[in-house]
Amino acid sequence: MEANLDSFREATQIVRTIPGFDDRSAQSVLSEIGIDMSRYPSDAHLLSWACMCPRNDESAGKRRSTRMRKGSRWLKATLFPCAWAAVRTKGSYFQAQFHRIKARRGAKKAIGAVAASLLRTIYHMLKDGTLYQDLGADHFDRRHKTASTRRLVQRLQNLGFAVQLTPVPA
């Protein structure tokens, strides 16, 4: 019995390293999904089980609904406030993800995506036994550097500026 509590405490400490999680929220999420991630073949299976992935309801070329299914009320009631707290952490990956999606889809869809990312992060951390390492607010710019450069140059040209790019020596 005590060995099971020790593994639960260890998993709680791992989840607490994610921005937006405290003791109670980490315990709540772990009590819903468990600490043994071998029961889920992949992170997508966990997200689907938790009903955190949007529907793709399309027929005859018309999109109907992209709402999330109902799923576990308690899990979502914990993940969404944690997602809002993670979004408010300055310079974090989750804040960058939220602002990136919010510009296209709105705040509610964006916070749902951040909550799903939190659950995906928890899955990988518990499966590998690693602590959280933030990718940083500039993750998306570093990942798609040429696309970001092209988009920003195009934006400046649309505002009426002539743009000449010269790389800075490293």
Distance from N terminus to C terminus (CA atoms, Å) equals 57 Å
Principal-axes shape call: globular
What is the oligomer described by this structure? single chain
**What is the number of domains?**
1
- Radius of gyration over all CA atoms, rounded: 19 Å
Task: Estimate the strand proportion.
Answer: under 5%
Summary, kept brief:
This protein is mainly alpha-helical and 170 residues long.
Question: What distinguishing features does this structure have?
Answer:
globular; mainly alpha; 170 residues; two-stranded antiparallel ribbon; 2% strand
Question: How would you characterize this protein structure?
Answer:
The protein is 59% helix and 2% strand. The chain has helices at 2-15, 23-33, 43-49, 73-87, 93-105, 107-128, 139-143, 145-158, and strands at 58-59, 62-63. A two-stranded antiparallel ribbon has the order 1-2. It has 170 residues and is mostly helical. The mean pLDDT is 84. Helix 1 (2-15) crosses helix 2 (23-33) and helix 2 (23-33) crosses helix 4 (73-87). The protein has one domain (2-137).
